[in-house]
Each structure stands twice: as C-alpha cells, then as structure tokens.
Amino acid sequence: MNRKNQGSAQPEVITINELSKAIINRLGVDRKEAKRIAGFVLDLFGFEDRVIDNVLDLEGRQLFYILEEEGMLVSGREETILYNGREWLTHYWQIQRKTIIRFSKNGCKNIKNDTLKDTQSMKISNCVDIYSSITREMWNARTIEKKKSICYFIRSK
Fold first, then answer.
1. Residue 119 lies in a domain
2. Continuous segment of H or E residues that includes residue 92
3. 146 confidence band (pLDDT: 50, 70, 90)
4. Is 83 helix (H, G, I), strand (E, B) or coil?
5. What is the distance between the alpha carbons of residues 146 and 157, in angstroms, rounded to a whole number?
6. 72: domain CATH number?
C-alpha cells in the first residue's frame, strides 16, 4: 500500500496484513492467529473509524479491551438527549490508524520519561534486552493456566 499521500483529507485504510503484523508485534501471537483476529476486527469496522459497542459479544469485547491496552483501539461514549428528555448513552470503539501502521513496522513500545522537561518520548532501541532482564520468578508470577484462554480470539498453546 502506498502511504505517500498522508497529508490528504481521506483517511488511510488499514489492511489485514498491517493489522496482523501489528498484532504479532504487540501481542506475540502466531501469524495465523493474528490474521484471524485482524479479519474479525476489520470485518466489524469495515471502512469506518468507529463501531458501536453493541455489536460485540463478550469475547469480542474482551479482545477489544486487549487491543485498547496496546493502543490500537480507543473506547468512547456519546450522550444524546431523546425526544422525551431522557439521556441515552452510546459506547463505541475507534480504530487508531496511525498507531496500527507504526506498530506494524515496529513492535517496540515507547516509554515516556516523565523527568524530561520537553515531554519527548524516549524510544527503546532493543526490546529483547528488556525481556531478558526479567527473572524466571517474575515471569512465573504472571502465568496463566494453559487450559484456559485469555480471550476467545487468542488461544492458549
């Protein structure tokens, strides 16, 4: 996909390959699983930026919360006054196109250093060094039973 026209008013379309790559880079699932997740997400969004929360079942919503934690989605809500004066609350999810494109190219997280006066983000040059510094006990403290899946869309091995 050609990304030269980034200054145009038309929003960029996220491809299944870009979203799959971002999911692989951020969630660490295999390519087949990432493509399945990306297909599900893009089927819901279509060519829109937002999707209403009501279309999701429990497992889909759980997946969306995982993607929100990674910064690929953002949740929001709108309040509307109905004709009878009651308030109606609509929850929605919005896709973060620029973030997904960035994650599809590089999965390393950016960590913000609060001590910087100019509030610039510091990039970590090598993600592997971070994970190699974590002890075995720390990893074991966060393990999940192999039989239970975190989410319907992300199967435990």
1. no
2. strand 87-95
3. low
4. coil
5. 7
6. 1.10.10
Selected residue with higher pLDDT from 134 and 114: 134
Q: How far apart are CA 125 and CA 155, in angstroms?
A: 30
Count of CB atoms within 10 A of residue 19's CB?
26
**How many domains does the chain contain in total?**
1
Which residue range(s) make up the domain with 35? Answer: 16-110
Tell whether 24 is covered by a domain.
Answer: yes
91 within some domain? yes
- Entry pTM: 0.63
DSSP characters over 142-154: T---TTS-SBTTB
Over 101-123, what HEC string results? HHHHHCCCCEEECCCCCCCCEEE
Positive/negative CA dihedral, 99, 131, 154, 63: negative
